[in-house]
Amino acid sequence: MGSDVILSLRNICSAIPKGITVPRHIVCLTFDFDTMSGFIARGLTTPTPLSRGEFGARASSRILAFLQSRGIASTWFTPGFTIETFPRECEAVLKAGHEIAHHSWAHVPPADQDREAEEADMERANDAIARLTGRKARGYRSPSWDLSPHTIDLLVKQGFLYDSSLMGADYWPYRARRGDVAERGQPYGFGEETSLIEMPISWSLDDFPHFEFLRTPQTVLPGLQPARTVMANWLDEFRYMKKSVDWGILTYTMHPYVIGRGYRMLALEELVDTLAREGAVFMTMEDAAGQAQARMWG
Ligand SMILES: [Zn+2]
Question: Of these four, 45, 140, 196, 234, which has the most CB atoms within 10 Å of its CB?
Fold first, then answer.
């Protein structure tokens, strides 16, 4: 940036009256580094489904190269399974300056576990993260985005800063609650807010349902949508955030074995470059949660 540009930016900033917020539109690129763990958790353990997950480990290097080329720091929700199965690939994510966040050990949805099993898996995964990074995770995202009634409690107990598994907002983080009561025929009972910051997500901003063809004995997920159509929707979500709020955070969720296919990478690269031109500020989810904390509750 030339010095004249810096000077003119300074002039603009000093001309803004106190109390007026400078627009800031944050984008978190997040990657759920599942590799084979999700297939194994679903019982899909024949060679071809497993190889789909294996592709994620290979594709991680091209995603890292792209992020590096744009100077973007991102967040990788990494199961303990992936850390212990692909230590070299996980080291590369860490070395490139990205956040390693918690995504369970075995990719079993908490909603399918009792409290004891969920807590044991959560601790095992955090130990794997601490061995890799030197510290425990600050952020958590549940496998398959299905929390148990105990998850928020356990995350607070284990000292997490944020969760990224709920869909109760779009551009503004909020405090995760515990003890909500939902009963048929009764008004909704809101539980108490906790210290945990919820960084909201949405299936519409997740690559998996748009792109992945998945056949199980119970369902068929068709997927295989044109990549640029999906990215056009994702861009419009950013544009609506800019139009509707002066400050906000938008989170995209991707999986290396899904987004890492060539034609999708091209579409992602175009999206990221357009977002950058339109003023997006990219950062890790931990940093974004920190900014939300300071701005909303500081
Ligand atoms: Zn996952």
Answer: 140
